[in-house]
Amino acid sequence: MACPLKNLLFFFLFTFLPFPTTAQTYRNISLGSSLTALKDDNSSWPSPSAEFAFGFRQIAKDGFLLAIWFDKIPNQTIVWSANGDNLVPKGSKVELTVDGEFILNDATGKRIWCTQSAGSGVAYASMLNTGNFVLANGNSSNVWESFSYPTDTILPSQTLNQNGILYARYTATNYSTGRFLFSLKPDGNLVLATTRFPQNTPNQAYWSVKNPNIGFRFIFNESGFMYVASKNGSLLSTISSNTVSMQDFYQRATLEYDGVFRHYVYPKSTSSSAQRWPKVWSTSSSPFVPPNICTSIMESTGGGACGLNSFCTIEEQGPTCQCPNGYSFIDPEDERRGCKQNFAPQSCGETSKEETDLFEFQELNYANCWGGDYALFEGVPEDWCRQNCLDDCFCAVAVYNSRGQCYKKRLPFSNGAIDPNITGKTLIKVGKQNSTVKWGGGSITEKKDNKTLILFGSIILSGSGVLNFLLPLITYLVVSRAYSRKARVCQPYPVISGMNLKHFTYEELNNATNQFKEELGRGASAIVFIGVLASDNGKSVAVKSLDTSVRENDLEFKAEVSAIGRTNHRNLVQLLGFCYEGEHRILVYEFMSNGSLAGFLFGEPMPNWYQRRKIALEIARGLLYLHEECSSQIVHCDIKPQNILLDDSLTARISDFGLAKLLRIDQTLTTTGIRGTKGYVAPEWWKRLPITAKVDIYSYGILLLEIIFCRKHFEAKVEDEGQMILADWAYDCYKQNKLHELFKNNDEAMHDMKMVEKYVMIAIWCIQEDPSLRPTMKKVALMLEGTIEVSAPPDPSSFISSIL
Question: pTM here?
Answer without folding.
Answer: 0.53
